Records
---
Amino acid sequence: MIKPHTQIKKVFIEKGSLQYPLAQKVLKNLGPVPVEIINDEEEVIEKYNLLKDPVGEGKKALLLKPLKGDFIKPCPCTPHYLGCNYYIINTDLNCPMDCTYCILQHYLDNPVMVSHVNTNDLWEQLDRFLYQHRSRFIRIGTGELGDSLALDDITERSKEFIAYFREKTRVNFELKTKTINTDNILCEKPADNIIIAWSLNTELMAKKEEKGAPAVKDRIEAAYEVQKKGFRVAFHFDPLILYRGWEQDYRDIIDRLFSRIDPSGIAWISIGSLRFPKPLKTLIRKRFPLSQIIYEEMVGGKDGKLRYFKPMRLKLYQDIVRDIRSCGGKGVPLYFCMESNEIWRKILNKEPGSKEEVEAFLSLLPRFKAT
Amino acid sequence: MTNMKFTQIDTGTINTKERRFQISPYFSVDSLVLSIKKTGLLNPPVITKREEKHVIVSGWRRIFACRELSIPSIPVFVMDETKDLEAFKVPVFENLSIRDYTQIEKAAVIRKLDGFGESPENIIQRYLPLLKAPPTREVMDAYIKIDRLNENIKETAHNKKWPFATLELMTEWTERERQGLFPFVKELSLNKQKELIENLFEVSRKKGISVQSILSSGEFAKVQKDISLSPMQKAEKIRLLARTQRYPSLSSWKEAFEKVSENLNLPEEIAVIPSKFFEDEVISIRLNVKNKKELEKYADKLKELSSKKEISLLFNPFSHD
Ligand code: SF4
């Protein structure tokens, strides 16, 4: 597997950003690549908008700049469906992999990967945020607007995050990835509240729809190593994708997962099915003309996004949950990402009612004791 | 600034076959004829010379209206500009200041600017924002493709004001596919046109067969051969068939729901309405009443209905299978 960062062919640096230690670290770790100093991000956006495939080209470039606003935001989830009160940390945006369904193609104005280098502000903001929320349990992670570990070889952020959160026992910190870039993590001492999570799919979908991402069996092997080291792990079967033969393919992956991973060390498994805002459909059609995923039966959900017709989702979830339970994951906490109360009730026999209840359910789970 | 000379010229000397600066050929002169008849030509067209002949830069409708009124000579501004790109900016900016362009006109503007040698950077960064379009290469390229569509499709798209997304989708079809579908599309209203184009495209891509193959098979072929149907009825049936093929589960769910509600023999004052795409489990019951007495009557009826076993089928029309 080629390290994802090796496809970075150009670095843009916003004027004044070189003073940050992280910018210097990234440049050092990247080795020789052309560097261009720019006045502001707009210049890069304009430049990439002139290209035929700005999204694809943007994945070969990295912009180093400070973030002027807040690093920490509540996960936007989606209107009219049940959220989980998760918080996201926007340190690095976008990623070098190129998944067909990736919402970031549509969501981010800037197609170039961005690494926010003002880590001093990040720690300050985190201190303040955790103090403000000191009376409650927090679930927080970096993998929403990018892959948590895709650039970890050059940013080495995982080490700093683990060191920072290790002592924050009222926080569950999650690094979410599709990569096998776990070298930095494997050098760290595990902590009970640090969770390393992998997005999983069938091997066929990974091959066809997750360009640049490792095979799923390799992700499971990486998770095995991390679990062996003593970390808690988690998995996201999201987005589940319908296609001819999905039943057996998902079962095979779930089987493989539980043949390698100790279920008692799985913090949670989330489940969600393919969904995206309508404009992404056009983008997918144009960027991935051979992909078939947009031609399944998807209709407008309560949030306006396209998602599988509900009876199809119910069948999909029923099968996945049954397979997880029967393959060894009987006691593993499961939750839905962006689904309705009805789905929770019909599939998991739970009706949380609010995102606070989902949060409580996920935060108060028994902790895995590293052996 | 280009030199302009105000003068009077013979309408017959204008070469109306030369359309290099024309943005839209889809216009009618009827209302303008009436206005010129009443008040004369108030706003002189702009012309220039190419190969010793007068060609129109802007004011096509005005010149055609004057010709229809057999006005022998008209006042014009003659532009002393040999560069096509510079001359073309006149109608582009003139129209921009008075109205919104349709997507077809935007496509013509972009393709002509490109053809006259305007740089892609300028088209993307200067003109696309003026045309209220996203300033990206993808959008520029899409407009150029849209302008290459056949005239009959462009005319319908212009008149019905098709949105960009529908036109962009059309560019991904083959010419045969487009022409195969066109007779049906043109019979429908804008929203139905959009729906038919999108659904047929997606069915064809999902099945990996051409739109013609779909249209010439099974129910689609039957509809087309049915001489008892008018062109509009055929178009409507084709639209519904395409929808059923694109959304087979949703369609059968809908059909089953309708059957269940039909079997309940509800009075016409009571209607059961599922949520959009059955996404919500809630079913709405609409009751139309004129007075208290009717309300009591239908409330009783509703109560009676709720005790029927079949009522639960409304919440899952397939649960008896
Ligand atoms: S790995 Fe995640 S962030 Fe990267 S392209 Fe895929 S979905 Fe997007």
---
Amino acid sequence: MSANEQQIKIRVRGLNKSFNGRNGELVALKDVDLDVYTNEFICIVGPSGCGKTTLLNILAGLEKPTSGVAEMDGSEIKGPSAERGVVFQQYALFPWKTVIQNVEFGLKLKGMDKERRRQEAMKYVEMVGLKDFADAYPKELSGGMKQRVAIARAYAVNPEVLLMDEPFGALDAQTRAQLQEDLLKTWDKEKKTCFFITHDVDEAVLLAQRVVIMGARPGRIREIINIDVPYPRNQETKLQEDYIAYRNLIWSKVYKEYLEVAK
Amino acid sequence: MEGKSKKISSSVILLASLAIGFVIWTIISLVPSIGSIIVGPAKVFEALISEYENGNLAKNISISLWRVFSGFSIGLITAIPVAFLMGWYTLVRQFVEPWIQFFRTIPPIALIPLVIVALGVGESAKTTVIFVASFLVMVVTIYQGVKGVDPVLINAARVLGASDRDIFFDVVVPASVPYILVGVRLGLGSALTTLVAAELTGASSGLGNMIMEASLYFRMDVVMLGIILIGVIGFILDKAVLYLEKRITSWQEMREQ
Ligand SMILES: Nc1ncnc2c1ncn2[C@@H]1O[C@H](COP(=O)(O)OP(=O)(O)OP(=O)(O)O)[C@@H](O)[C@H]1O
Ligand SMILES: [Mg+2]
């Protein structure tokens, strides 16, 4: 890795998060330490309920840790900020806004004037290939198209960090493959720090420079693995031996975590 | 193609239904012992013409509508901010909700004697009762909408840099519009029913009063006319709001009707 990539963008130290559930206290995250480097693509995998979303919410500033700190550029994350864009699993598009209005909303909040933000937003709508649907309402879009809009909306405000929570989880295999490639291309063009949660080990190895494996009960980080497969990557990368070796390695480790949970 | 043929057949069915209704009504009115109370369509139509010609009809309808709209408008103008405050500030909700729940269990008609004693039989008494009735229905419905705004959408706005104020105007308000329109529909309906009740008990004009007076003189044709007009007005108002709803909230996912 180059020196630039080793700059720490997000630093997490001694992070704990518990919820008061019906059966008393539930430890969602225990002693999590993590550094995310500037412009890095990092993927988080782990069994359901291991606290992936909780960690993302804390990084987004939507939730507060019980103890420990999460910092960005050396200052504590205290609340949401346009510096950290989020792509939610459930798309979370504003149904009363058209595609272009959804994408330009963040720019409007920044106080950009109407003309400019329309232009700027259009760039991102085109980037995700939805030019012809700019004036459509979300209800008229397929799941894959909605997720493209969500990605364009997050990109449009030009955040330094993109936090994505299983953004392709609900999509069919083909759409998913397409969006993975689009995302890789976009990341190649407009480098950003990407924190990407997925259930899918194939997806994690294809996208990430590093894969974080989490375990459940309590949620914690088990292992972080460097994926030394050169970029640019695309679906054909999946045929390469190095890719397959990483995938098998990580899959067996994740499988162990799944078994833990099943016990 | 299919949608079109469905439309045609549904309007055919509507016409058939109306025709059969008229036939049954006519048959019932021909039964000697009932016919003097439930008069037939022809007699009601005659009443319509004569009431229209002597000018009472237009006067009664416009007075009733005026009362409905004034009470309802005041109800809507107050229900919207109260509902939003309840949804936005827990303190306001805790303070206001028990009162609303309490008054909701009282049929507005039960308030009429009290209001008449306090405000007399004039316009302000009727407006007040209609206001209370429509306000209560609307505040509850709109509050449900404000409270039910998807937290994911609020978070989506927050991570784009939205302040509380932005979230209120750009997320909570538009997300509540469908509920406001449902509230308007329910509020208008309850305004109309309450109006008739208010006019039946104490008024010198309006459709309710027209029915009341006619029944004293056993003019059942006018009574029937009044009843049918109230139904027609209610139907038209309801359809008008539904039409608005379709236009304004076309962005909503289709719901099964
Ligand atoms: N608001 C909350 N209140 C109570 N418990 C919560 C809350 N949010 C999450 N939890 C609990 O914390 C644990 C971690 O949840 P989280 O959503 O972070 O898991 P996850 O790894 O994202 O799972 P999945 O892969 O299914 O999305 C779960 O046991 C969940 O029940
Ligand atoms: Mg999750």
---
Amino acid sequence: MTEPGGDTVAAARAGSTPYVDPARVRYRKRKSLRDAAIGMISLIVTATVVTVVIVRTPGWSAVQETFFSPEAFAESFPGLLDAFWLNIRIFLIAEPLILIVGLTVALVRRLRSPIFLPLRIVATVYVDIFRGVPTLLVILLLGFGVPALQLQGAPDDVLVWGVVALVLSYGAYVAEVFRAGIDSVHPSQQMAARSLGLTSWQTNRYVVLPQAVRNVTPPLLNDFISLQKDTALVSVLGPIELLRRAQIDASFTFNYTPYVAAAALFIALTIPMSRFTDWVQARQRRRRGAGTDS
Amino acid sequence: MNPTMLRVSDVWKSFGQESVLRGISVDVTEHEVVVLIGASGSGKSTLLRCINGLETVDAGSIVLDNDLDVTAFRTDLDAVRRRVGIVFQSYNLFPHMTVLKNITLGQRKVLGRSSAEAQERGRQLLARFGLEDKADEYPDRLSGGQQQRVAIVRAVAMSPEMLLFDEITSALDPLLVGEVLEAVRELKEEGMTIVMATHEMGFARDVADRVCFLDAGVVLEQGPPQEVLRDPTERRTRDFLARILG
Ligand SMILES: Nc1ncnc2c1ncn2[C@@H]1O[C@H](COP(=O)(O)OP(=O)(O)OP(=O)(O)O)[C@@H](O)[C@H]1O
Ligand SMILES: [Mg+2]
């Protein structure tokens, strides 16, 4: 053998190591460098052209002044950031409660014993109602309605009722997501667990639910993202969260920059979550792909 | 004569209008290996699932050890399943757990063994079935034959009195059938009582103490494999064997 790399081929043939023609290795390396460079250049050119076109457009300076004014931004941003903290707190309190409500309702709907019939009916009716009514309407109904009853001992803080409304509304969605997840676990898994003598509760706890939760993690994260935005709906009750703050600022100055800044803040919160969702999904695909099916 | 371990008497079972078991009776004695053969749809799986309480019968009785009536109206099926293990055609391992976790889950939650105890027994059994290096793998990284052997170990780990095997080699690549049947043979040598449905006639001939031919929901013919498989008295048994042996 006189070709370059002849020794490596011989070694690969003898052992179990892979062999790739050195010329092809060099070609692949060049190609991947070239692809990266082309992508970069294309991106820069496009961005430049778009920017130039936008900036040259008549009316751009008016747009810039109304939506992207640095002064208005500097003035409102600290207040917006402050108000945003309320959205984050609403989210952090509501989300765990939503998961608990959703999982509980999904499990109740699975109970088979006749003694639980009333519970099952309640769960079904709950899901039907709260999935059908707009979240905003639930917030208005609870936020203004319940305090108006002046119930003894009921909190009169509208914020509490806003969070309760979000939990009830999202709980119904999440219950259905969990239910779909449970249904996606093949019945033979339950049969195998029961045949080992596990009780129906143990079967749920150790066999069905872990697989169900894994299967629905991406849609659940998707609902989280949606909730992060919907915390703004609580503003209709009066609490000054991000959207309300922006609205106030904008109406004082007749400048819409605070809205744009508020949008940027929401995006700053949802983008990490979106990337995390992508990552979880990709990991699940990999895991499934790794399985041999013989 | 060994004591009777399982007595199936006059069991009926239908699904809707389809009558699958039509008064079937079988006795199994301790340490016996009984092989069920019969055409597809003859009710082999249904019978095994009734014995394990995964299906409820319509009439008749199934009694374990002369003391536990599987078919009693208010029977404790979890108790039945603690004493009778079953392995299915599609291994049904839990995909989110390692092999060892698969094997220890039932021991810990059902039998109340400590984690250390369960793991020790799990590892011993894995070693005995040539799977010691797979303890920490996830099931989907194993070949079909390995998965099925893990499923057998999972059932054996529960220290059952009797094992039911439902066509445990039918989903396997022909090359992998041998290793699973070898595991069954090993269990027989240890004295395990086994009822298995299979289409592996060669294996039935070698290992079965008794072969039962199921037809139209009853045991049409039964006896030692040499008799039933070589020289059946029933015409339908002959037809079935002729078809399956090609
Ligand atoms: N859960 C069920 N619901 C309705 N019909 C069923 C059910 N289980 C089994 N059957 C029917 O009962 C009949 C017997 O099925 P069974 O699985 O016991 O046969 P088998 O002897 O194991 O066949 P095979 O060799 O194909 O496994 C079949 O016709 C099947 O369609
Ligand atoms: Mg079958």
